[in-house]
Amino acid sequence: CAESALTSVLGDLSHTYFVGNAPFAHMVINPTESEPGLPDFK
Question: How far apart are CA 28 and CA 4, in angstroms?
C-alpha cells in the first residue's frame, strides 16, 4: 500500500513538474527567439 501511494505521489509530482515547467521553458525561450524579430516589426 505504501509503495503504491508513493508511486502515485511521484507520478503526480513528475506530471506537475513537466506540465508546470513546459510553459516556463517556452516563456524563457520565446522572448530570446522573438528578440531579433521585434525590430523587424517596428
Answer: 36
Entry pTM: 0.22
* Cβ neighbours of residue 25 closer than 8 Å, sequence gap 6 or more: none
User: Can you tell me the distance from the alpha carbon of 23 to that of 28, in angstroms, rounded to the nearest whole number?
Assistant: 9
Q: What is the pLDDT of residues 26-36, one digit of tens each?
A: 555 555 555 55
pLDDT of residue 28: 55
**How does DSSP assign 1-42, residue by residue?**
-HHHHHHHHHHHHHHHHHHHHHHHHHHHHHHHHHTTHHHHH-
